[in-house]
Amino acid sequence: MSFEASHPPALERSKSLRRYNTLQLDATAEYFVEVTSLQQLQQLLGASPAPLALVLGGGSNVVLTSDIPGLVVLNRILGKQVVAESDTHLELVVGAGENWDELVRYCVERDLWGIENLGLIPGTVGAAPIQNIGAYGVELESVLLWLDAFNTETGELCRFSRATCRFGYRHSLFKEADGRKFIITQVAFGLSKEPIPQLSYGELAQKYENIDSKDIKALSVYQSICDIRRAKLPDPLHTPNVGSFFKNPIIEPHLFADLLRQYPSIPHYLTADGAIKLAAGWLIDKAGWKGKRVGAVGVHDRQALVLINPGLGSAREVLDLAQKIVADVERQFGIALEVEPTIYPPARDSLRVVPIAPLTEG
Ligand code: FAD
Ligand code: NAP
């Protein structure tokens, strides 16, 4: 990978982060720096005026709840390199600061398969492993071969295999306490030159039902994904949001049996380990929140899982709305929703880990 020549990064003080997070929350970083190479990152963390507080990519999965004492690093480490190739596969190493959707387009334009269903997800390549991004039946872990991450405590560069990333549903080691000290610098992808379309999700399945999979191009699937997403999801440039605000709850079959008796039309999906995944957006809709506004903030009218901030409200308003939704869903369905984006600082993340409560009468 050809990283840019190293020169000391420019450190800024008291930097507003409003344009660096897609909810457009107004938080100020004590120190802020944009890093474009691994060498810059190493130099910087060796001589930083303040401890590292937060790494940002596109800011599309963070809720900044207050000003940030310490250093905020904006990751802009770029580069793409093919490191191995066979008749059927290609291994591509990509800098963590590359834009995710641009990478997807780069791949589908070359008819490389594996990440086409993950098109149009905002953010950077380096943040994609953090929550093992997923959409339309594909998760990042299916194509990730390894990644490099800088240990900010020891200064070492460490290589993680797919297995050591501890991927789960919208989860990885890097979301856990002992994983937060790592800054991901580059990611290696294993892509297929042969068609491997994943078309199990409703609208995709319908669109391709009469087409032989060998006649499908990765670019076509990508374009279909973009059309579906644009019709349903708010563009953060016009309507500030962080995508799904809650994870889809995964519950035990015996709890689900009770729910199904009460709500026979409840959407549900069997997971590989025999649990039941529910659609959080459906639960929020049924609890009466879809399309509702509360002051500057609200719930998107086409997907209730997305909280929006059209009036540029505060983090307090966003979290208060989230709290009300969690309480109503819990009251009606006995399901405790878990927040998906990173709440920063973590101490304010009072919504994050909540056990599934027993079912109450709806
Ligand atoms: P940021 O918001 O900048 O950071 C997110 C977290 O990762 C933070 O904790 C941050 O500290 C950490 N982080 C960022 N970069 C690094 C790094 N290099 N090393 C270590 N830690 C790092 N997500 C999905 O999974 N599927 C979707 O379909 C999807 N659709 C979305 C649609 C919309 C409209 C929006 C707004 C969001 C959507 N998201 C989706 C959420 C989000 O886009 C992804 O999680 C994305 O990967 C976040 O990238 P980012 O660069 O913006 O991360
Ligand atoms: P949707 O089609 O309205 O479906 C609602 C939920 O049902 C989805 O979240 C999805 O779970 C699940 N689902 C639907 N069909 C399924 C199937 N065949 N098998 C298993 N699960 C199924 O969802 P949507 O809101 O329009 O989103 C479409 C895709 O984009 C989803 O995969 C979603 O995760 C992803 N997305 C994610 C974000 C984010 O910020 N995380 C934002 C927008 C869209 P899964 O979520 O587990 O796939």
Describe this structure in words.
With 362 residues, the protein is of the alpha+beta class. It has seven helices and 20 strands. It has helices at residues 38-46, 100-109, 202-208, 218-232, 253-262, 280-286, 315-333; strands spanning 11-16, 28-35, 52-56, 62-64, 68-75, 80-85, 89-95, 134-135, 138-139, 144-151, 157-161, 182-192, 241-244, 250-251, 268-270, 276-278, 293-294, 297-299, 306-308, 342-344. The protein has a five-stranded antiparallel sheet with strand order 6-7-12-10-11, with no helix packed on it. Strand 15 (268-270) and strand 16 form a beta hairpin. The radius of gyration is 21 Å and the shape is globular. It starts with 10 loop residues before the first strand and ends in an 18-residue tail after the last strand. Residues 348-362 have low confidence and may be disordered. Bound molecules: flavin-adenine dinucleotide (FAD) and NADP nicotinamide-adenine-dinucleotide phosphate. Flavin-adenine dinucleotide binds next to strand 3, strand 8, strand 12 and strand 13.
